[in-house]
Amino acid sequence: MKWQGNKIGYVIYGESHSPAIGIRMENLPEFKLDTEELDGFLARRKAVRAAYSTSRTEEDKIIWKSGFNNSVISGTVTAEIENKNVKKGDYDELKGKPRPSHADYASFAKFGRVDFGGGREFSGRMTAPYCILGGIAKQILRSKGVEVLAYISQIGKAKGKSYLDSVVTAEEIKNSPNGILSGGEEMQKEIELAKNNLDSVGGIIECIVFGLPAGVGYTMAEGLESEISRQVFSVPAVKGIEFGSGFNLAAMNGSFSNDEFFYDGDKVKTYTNNSGGINGGISNGMPVTLRVAVRPTPSIARQQRTVDLIEKKDTVIAIKGRHDVCIVPRAVPVIESAVAIALLDNLL
Ligand SMILES: Cc1cc2nc3c(=O)[nH]c(=O)nc-3n(C[C@H](O)[C@H](O)[C@H](O)COP(=O)(O)O)c2cc1C
Known about the structure:
It is built from eight helices and 16 strands.
C-alpha cells in the first residue's frame, strides 16, 4: 500500500500472517528521534489484556533496516515489525466464506482469492507500521510547536466529553488514561455488553491539532480537509469524518455558525470554532478539530449469514479467531498518526 504526498511518501508491505510487516518512508528530514517515546506510542496501539481486546498480543518491536543511525533518521527510512503470534488455523474454516463487512468478499472480487487468512493486507495489524511513521511525524511536528492529540468521545451509546460541548485542552488529553476524558465506566459497560452478546461495538474518536499556524494548506483537492481525510480513511474501520461542527452545521443559520474574528494581542482569533480551524482548505490558526466514526469490529462470534464462494451456496459463520470487541481504543494512536502524517507533509 503506497502513498505519495507533496513531500513525503510511504510503502507499507507484508500482511497480517506473513513473517513481518514493514514500512518504507521516503523523504524524511534529518531528525533525532526519541525512540523510547516512539516505542511507547506503538504500545498504545497494541492489544492490551482488557475486556475489549484481541488475545493476539504482539511485541511490536521496531527493527530499523535503513536510514536510522544512533536514533537519527533521514531520507529513506525502512522499519519492520515481526509477526510472532500468528495462528493460521484460526482462519481455516473461513476459507471461501467472507466475513460480513470485512474486506474478504471485496478482495475476492478484486483478486479472485478465497484464502482470507487474518484479513491479509486489509488487517488492522497493518496500522502498526503506519504508526511508526505517525509517531515520527508527531515528534517532528512537536519540534515545530504543533501537537496532534486524539481521545475517545463515544463508545456505542455511551458518550464522553466532546469538543462540540466544551473546550478540550491539550493537557487534559495528555493526562487522560486510556484516551478517555470522561464517561469511561459507561463506555466499558458498552464493551462488556457487546462481548457478552458475542457482538462488537464502535465509537467516535476526536482529534485536535494544537499550535498549527494560520496559512497551512491550499484549496480543493489540496486542502487540509482533503489531505487529512485521505489519511484518516486509510485507517481500516473508519467510516465517517467531520471537521469542527461538521454535520451539525447543516441545521444552523450562518449568523450562529460563522466564526467571528477578534484580535487577541496581535493574533487574529475567532470566538467560536465551528469551522474546525480550516477555511477554504487552509488553516486559520484556531485548533484543527475533527471527529472520526469507527465501525463495530466486523468479525463477531455470533452466527451470521454469508456465502460459500467455493461451493457457491448460502451458508452461516461464527468467527472464532482473535478479534477486538471494540477497535476504538486501539485506533486512537492510529488516528493521531493519520492526522500527523497529513500535516507533516504540508509543513515540510
Ligand atoms: C487497530 C485496528 C484493529 C482492528 N482489528 C480488527 C479485528 O480484530 N477484527 C476485525 O474484523 N476487524 C478489525 N479491524 C477492522 C478491519 O480491518 C476493517 O473493518 C476491514 O479491513 C474492512 O475495512 P472497512 O471497515 O474500512 O471497510 C481493525 C482495525 C483497526 C484500525
